[in-house]
Design brief:
With about 50 residues, the protein is mainly alpha-helical. Helix content is about 20%, strand content about 0%.
Length: about 50
């Protein structure tokens, strides 16, 4: 099956509410996005 071209985000949302992503698995592309974990800042806490 071929994915349709969506004109609006709402149209795409309605489409995926009614269809399974499994039917279109072959048409999907792997994302090149990389999600980096933010750097953590160490904090010292003094307890008495």
């Amino acid at each position: 099956m071929k994915l349709p071209d969506f004109k609006t985000k709402e149209e795409e949302i309605r489409f995926w509410e009614r269809h399974s992503i499994g039917d279109y698995w072959e048409d999907l592309l792997e994302s090149k996005d990389a999600f980096k974990r933010p750097k953590l800042k160490p904090v010292s806490i003094k307890l008495s």
